[in-house]
Structures are given as structure tokens and as C-alpha cells.
Amino acid sequence: MEGHELSHTFLSVPRSLGESAHQILDAAGRLHADILPVELDKGRIGFPMNDQGEQNQQFLIHLKEQLGESFELIQCVPTFQFPNDPHQRLAQAVTTWLGDDASLATLQLPTKWERLGDLVLFPHGSFSDESWQKVRITDSIDELWRGIAQALKVSSIGLQAPIAKNTLRTPQIEMLRGSSDVEFLDHGIRYGFDASRVMFSSGNITERRRIAGLEMNEEIVIDAYAGIGYYTFPMLIHAGAKHVHACELNPSSIEGLKWGINANGLESRVTVHEGDNSTTMPTLRGQADRCHLGLLPSSELAWGDALLCLKSSGGWLHIHMNVEEEKIGAWMTKTLTELQSICDKNKLHFTVEGGHLERVKWYAPHVRHVVFDVRCKPI
User: Fold this and answer.
1) Coil, strand, or helix at residue 372?
2) CA triple 256-127-194, angle to 5 deg
3) Average pLDDT of 53-82?
4) Which domains occur in the chain, in start order?
5) pTM of this prediction?
6) Radius of gyration of the chain (CA)
């Protein structure tokens, strides 16, 4: 595959002749519109030529007439000025790498991806059909991954795989280029973690914004499944919570959580409780104005502890769950009944009332990720 070396022909001239050279190439239709000029040593500048220019002997004679002996043709690694549409940039990067190999022109390209800081993760199954299997064994495949990363304006790219079916729901990633360590800013909040060991769902952005918009002034909050602070930080920074007790089991998530606490200057407002929350939450009984239960597919195992953690003045529960769309109403009724039963059994003098239900996203066909806000009022 001749096009895989990602080098290109440039017209090199002294900087003093740069404007003239640019005008000559542009007027003759010989200037490559998608590649940026390059700064060269010894006061020279290089302009990218298209195929018509570099292969047309008559035009090279014309250049010599206009520029004298001062010009030369050189090979440089190009920097593309891609179109605004990232899908077009991705297609252009692959096309450039393929060069004149028309046999692979039908390669299927991913149409969506997730960006985490300087890392792009493509969905499971991307770059995996039979044609791609042939491409991925070529010696210059790293040049393709570099071109794709450049096109999407990141330094690292990887492939997602199904989340491991273990207690920690560990993500599985095949890195194609760069590092899985990411740092980024979201809604004024800094996050940092290893994407190969910690799951971060960009699809939950609407729920993070909603939680951030609630009024939690001076409240004590328990985040029962804190992760790297997906909801802990919005509750503190935007919703005004006084203090959050962040309970988390996964050591990798705890590492990211502590990084975010320091990066966002929240050391005095977060207490991290490491380990299983069935052990840590009982130590917080009667202390909370609000409990956040952000575990999928179900947080039901923590409902009892969450109710026991509320102050005698009552408070709120935010219950995440995966529910079949047509069963959401029945699930809400059943949930309130179950919560009230737990209260009565434990002699908690609360009346349980349903509040807002948020449909966050589709989790699977016909299955919604929902969040049910439940008010626990003292009798």
C-alpha cells in the first residue's frame, strides 16, 4: 500500500519568496488545500503541492522560470487542516493513509465515539470486520492510528469492549494509540482517571446537570456509589452541598475520586469511605439530608441503609435503576411500597412520597436508565 508512509511533496522556497510561490501554486490550481504549509530550516518555507503539481513536468519548468534556482521539491510529513465535521476528518485520514489502494475503499468507519479529554474511545466492534482485519496486520498500521488521532484532535484512541461482569464492573479497553490515563474539564469540574480501569459514561451528562441544579444548601449528602465523583462533585460545586460522604469499593475509582477532590479543592468537604457500603454506610446512620444511589442495574441492596442514614427530619433519596419502559409506573409504585415497608420495619417515622422521575437514557432496547427522586417526610 503505497500511501501508508504519510509523507507529502512540498515546494521549498526562501521565506522572501513565500508570497510569490503561494500565489503561483494557487493560481495554477497546484496548491493542496487540505495540508498546512511547513516552517523549514535556514529561513525556508514549504508549500504542499497536489498530485497535478508534483507530477507535471511542464509546471515544474514554469516554476523554475518564476522562482529561478531557489526552489526545490522535498518530502515532509503533512499536517492536515481538516474540515469542521469530525466524521469527514476521520474519513479523510483513512483515505489519505490508504493512498491508491482502491481495494479497501469500502472500509466501514465508526459513526460515533466517546471523547474523554485527550482520549477517543470507539464502540466495541469498530475496525473489526474482515476488511479491517487485513488492514490491521499491515506494518504501517500505527501510522493510521496516528492519522485518526490527529484527525479527531486527540493523542490517544482505543476500542471499548463489554464491561466485565464482576462486582466492580471493570471496563475493558483495547488501546490503539497513546495512554488510557485521562484528565478533562466537564461543567467546570475536573476529572482524572485511568479509562482502562474505571468506567465513565458521557451519556449521563443530563443527569449530572440535573443533580447539579438542585438546591442542597448546607446539606450533608451520602453518595453510596461515588465512583470517581460523577455526582459527588456536581453536588458540592454547583448544588451547594455542605459535605459529601463518598462511599466507594473500587480502588481504581477511589484513586480517581481522590485525584478529583484535590484538583477541585474539595479536601475539607468530602470524606471518602473505602470498601463495601454495606459496611461503611451503617457508620453514617442518622447523619444525612440526602442519599444518592447511583448503581446500575439496581441499587436496591442499599435502600435500607440509605433510609437509616437519613436524619430524623427526613430527606431525599435519588434511586437509579434500569427498568423496562412499559413497567416504569408499576416499578415506581412498588418502590414506594418497599421503601415504606423498610421504614415501618425499622421504626423510622417517615412517610415516603414519590417525586420527580428522570428518564436518563436508553440502557438497552426497551430498557430505560431512570432516576426516581423520593421524599421521606417525618410523620
Assistant:
1) strand
2) 5
3) 80
4) 2-76 (3.30.70.240), 86-179 (3.30.300.110), 201-378 (3.40.50.150)
5) 0.74
6) 28
